[in-house]
Specification:
By secondary structure, the protein is an alpha/beta fold. It has two domains: 134 residues, 3-Layer(aba) Sandwich (Rossmann fold), CATH 3.40.50.10860; 161 residues, Rossmann fold (3-Layer(aba) Sandwich). The strands form two sheets. The protein has a seven-stranded mixed β-sheet with strand order 9-8-7-6-10-11-12. The longest helix is centred in the C-terminal third of the chain and has 26 residues. The protein is globular. The chain starts with a helix and ends with a helix. The structure holds nicotinamide-adenine-dinucleotide. Nicotinamide-adenine-dinucleotide binds next to helix 7 and strand 7.
Length: 420
């Protein structure tokens, strides 16, 4: 399997070919504008000194400040951070947010740090990157193993260094310090808005549609609940240890399953413990290839590959996870006429609500929950319509259409600035 940045560049090249893009735009888009690498010293609780490597890749800011998460993970890899920052630039352009793309990471296993060590690391990252960050320059958000608490420490450190309260320097914060309640459910909500739109376009009732969801964390669990409440048939849910599958008339209640997971740590033994329900315990592979109308990968990357794509039976794949389908699998799914709603559109609800948080922080003005909700709906549907028009115009699948649309928009911004 290629490294993620190579995959990203394959996607870029495909888009470039479809629209015969200006060579200068391609030259500027094939590499990040800036890569920052720092060493962050942390005095540990036992008084020893440890250093951690931190990265921030600022891919492109033609359309606005860089935007993208910071992950804390032992396997943070610069090629992956570069790819993720490129995809952020694409994602923000697809949903037409006035942002560029960036991404950051620290090589650390946060589970091995105490709370005070974690806070020192978060503040140290900001101290070292201070000149690269800021509400008008680069606005990070949470990603893998970072959370609202860490964003709060980071925003505070930035504010202290700047000598002013700069709430708009980080998004995904707790509500008390300028965050938005809807952020937690935003990714799932954005994907669910698209599901509803597609269902309406197909003229179907929710109760006729079977949904299988891989991954039962923030994105997968909340999405499953939205779909269940709206009357969709939830026929499969999995986590890292296995799947619960319904192959008879009994449907899965995600809340009940989540309560079980909270108690037991995993859904692994649910079928065994609730034999009366007649659910079947399966593997993730079983879930990905089960009979359903909608398959929602909401776990990790590279799950649908050339090895299992042929077995996928869903009509629609809605990618809540980043990069769950490999480029090779994409070609197979296209041939099978399976509609893939790609990550850069399907999970863009998260960054969209982050954008709302930033706008409100800059204005010192708070919108109502209903306003946040309505604006999210309007942006997701607007982006979906734009992608459909683009797919029709260039006779491409939705992923290629997203890349074409984004690259065109970024290219226009570069032209407007006189870069090309
Ligand atoms: P999470 O950590 O809350 O949940 C991940 C879930 O996936 C867990 O239930 C875990 O058990 C499961 N999982 C892990 N490995 C698995 C495997 N091999 N097979 C099946 N399940 C597995 O993470 P999340 O925030 O829900 O993110 C999930 C995906 O959505 C990631 O790709 C993430 O990048 C993407 N995403 C999330 C957000 C967001 O706002 N949360 C935004 C954009 C994209």
């Amino acid at each position: 399997m290629k490294n993620p940045f190579e995959n990203a560049m394959t996607q870029l090249k495909k888009a470039v070919k479809i629209i015969d893009l200006d060579e200068s735009v391609f030259v500027l888009l094939r590499q990040p504008q800036q890569i920052h690498e720092v060493s962050i010293p942390v005095k540990m609780d036992n008084s020893s000194l440890k250093t951690f490597r931190g990265y921030r890749v600022q891919y492109n800011n033609a359309r606005g400040p860089y935007k993208g998460g910071i992950r804390f993970h032992p396997q943070v890899d610069i090629e992956e951070v570069k790819a993720l920052s490129f995809w952020m630039a694409i994602k923000c352009a697809v949903v037409n947010l006035p942002y560029g793309g960036g991404k950051g990471g620290v090589e650390v296993n946060p589970q091995e740090l105490s709370e005070s060590e974690l806070e020192k690391l978060a503040r140290g990252y900001v101290e070292k990157m201070y000149r690269q960050l800021g509400p008008d320059r680069d606005i990070p958000a949470p990603d893998v193993y970072t959370n609202p608490k860490i964003m709060g420490w980071m925003m505070d450190e930035y504010s202290q260094l700047a000598g002013k309260v700069a709430k708009g320097s980080f998004t995904g914060k707790a509500v008390e310090i300028g965050g938005i309640k809807a952020r937690e459910s935003a990714t799932a909500k954005g994907g669910f808005i698209l599901l509803e739109k597609m269902r309406e376009d197909l003229g179907k009732n929710a109760s006729e549609m079977k949904v299988a969801i891989q991954g039962f964390g923030n994105a997968g669990y909340i999405f499953a609940n939205f779909a269940y409440e709206a009357g969709y048939q939830i026929v499969g849910i999995s986590d890292s240890r296995g799947a619960v599958l319904s192959k008879n008339s009994e449907l899965i209640n995600p809340q009940e399953l989540f309560d079980y997971k909270r108690k037991k740590g995993s859904i692994e033994n649910f079928c065994e413990d609730y034999k009366d329900k007649n659910f079947i315990a399966g593997s993730n592979e079983d879930l990905l290839t089960m009979e359903c109308d909608i398959l929602v990968p909401a776990a990790i990357e590279n799950q649908i590959t050339e090895d299992n794509a042929d077995g996928v039976k869903a009509e629609i794949i809605l990618e809540l996870a980043n990069g769950p389908v490999t480029p090779e699998a994409d070609d197979i799914l296209s041939k099978k006429n399976i509609t893939v709603v790609p990550d850069v559109l399907a999970n863009a609800g998260g960054v969209t609500v982050s954008y709302f948080e930033w706008v409100q922080n800059l204005q010192n003005f708070v919108w109502s929950d209903e306003e946040n909700d309505e604006r999210l709906r309007s942006i997701m549907i607007g982006a979906y319509d734009d992608v459909l028009v683009c797919a029709e115009k260039y006779e491409t699948n939705y992923r290629e259409a997203c890349f074409v649309l984004a690259v065109e928009r970024i290219g226009e911004a570069m032209k407007g600035r006189g870069w090309v």
